[in-house]
Design brief:
The protein has 334 residues and is α/β, with parallel strands linked by helices. 40% of the residues lie in helices and 19% in strands. It holds the Pfam family NmrA.
């Protein structure tokens, strides 16, 4: 029997890897052949993935409409995630990175609209923070997705009645990376988690961004009657930065570092002065979270219903942020 094709755009990224893994598990009720798209099929991870007989690794150039159209043809299902390219951000700035991802997502949207066999598109995206805030928060890695979202929703694309929007929350591994990384002060053996957000403001965390994205996507595709024409927030838990810091304290206790961890609220200006351009990018996101809290990922719904992990019956399958962080490898003084 020929299996339907699930094409995963960004198959070697955090989200894409999770989707591929979820559908290779025996527990997957929807049986598919996975077409894993990557810009570098000769990489070690791509070659390892290609050893699985149920996976085809295909090269794609997201700047080329023709390349994407060829890669998507014959797909029954598509999971599409793009990245806010860090190399472009570092070399050319936030505007260039925003424009590049915008181009990638628009190319994917136009190509997907031409796939006659397509039944369901899972569209990984983020809310339109600029629209939700009346222009107050232009967060480049959020806004880089908006034009493509609008094209998906346009009746002319033919995608709105085949699509689920999946908005993935804050990654559980973020404190490993700049500018999220807690600042360590050796004189006092303390770690400070610092953002321009109130200490008790809760917002969405995906927890394990790899595993949980896969769990969500599998549930979405296996329950189309619940999920098409819906927005789903990829969330394992809602946490404040104070609670996030408390989890990092548990990490330090597990490491036996003797370090004490606390959260300190700062201004956007202070955050920008400390971290430069990436501080502006992440600082604006945190200011947006500060204003909208738990509603941050459910703004700009265009009237589409928002459904939860509970609606999909997966709330007990997700890996929490605490479980995720305690399972990561941390530098001695991260």
């Amino acid at each position: 029997m020929t299996l339907p094709i699930l094409t995963v755009v960004g198959a070697l990224g955090n989200q894409g890897r999770g989707v591929v893994s979820a559908f290779l598990e025996d527990k997957a009720q929807l049986k598919v052949h996975i077409r894993a798209l990557t810009s570098n099929p000769s990489s070690e991870s791509a070659q390892e993935l290609a050893k699985n007989p149920n996976v085809s690794v295909v090269q794609v150039d997201l700047t080329s409409a023709e390349s994407i159209e060829s890669a998507l043809q014959g797909s029954t299902y598509i999971f599409a995630n793009t990245s806010f390219d860090p190399a472009t951000f570092i070399a050319q700035g936030a505007k260039a990175a925003e424009e590049l991802e915008n181009t990638h997502k628009l190319n994917i949207t136009r190509a997907a609209s031409k796939v006659a066999t397509l039944k369901h598109l899972v569209w990984s995206t983020l809310p339109d923070a600029k629209a939700a805030s009346g222009g107050k928060y232009h967060i480049p890695h959020f806004q880089s997705k908006v034009a493509a979202d609008e094209l998906v929703l346009d009746a002319k694309s033919g995608l709105s009645d085949k699509t689920t929007f999946l908005r993935i929350g804050v990654y559980g591994s973020n404190l490993l990376r700049v500018p999220h990384r807690p600042v360590y002060y050796p004189d006092t053996a303390t770690h400070i988690v610092q953002y321009p957000v109130g200490p008790d403001v809760k917002f969405a965390f995906i927890g394990d961004e790899v595993t949980n994205t896969g769990i969500y996507t599998r549930a979405i595709l296996e329950q189309p009657e619940k999920t098409i024409g819906r927005i789903i927030v990829g969330v394992a838990d809602y946490l404040s930065c104070t609670e996030w810091a408390a989890i990092f304290q548990k990490v330090q206790d597990k490491l036996g570092s003797g370090s004490k961890v606390s959260f300190k609220e700062c201004s956007l200006t202070e955050y920008e002065e400390k971290w430069g351009g990436i501080g502006t990018e992440i600082g604006l996101m945190m200011c947006y979270f500060n204003e909208f809290g738990e509603r941050s990922f459910t703004t700009t719904t265009w009237g589409w219903p928002v459904i939860t992990a509970g609606d999909l019956g997966i709330e007990h399958d997700l890996r929490s942020t605490e479980e995720t962080m305690l399972g990561l490898e941390w530098p001695a003084h991260n």
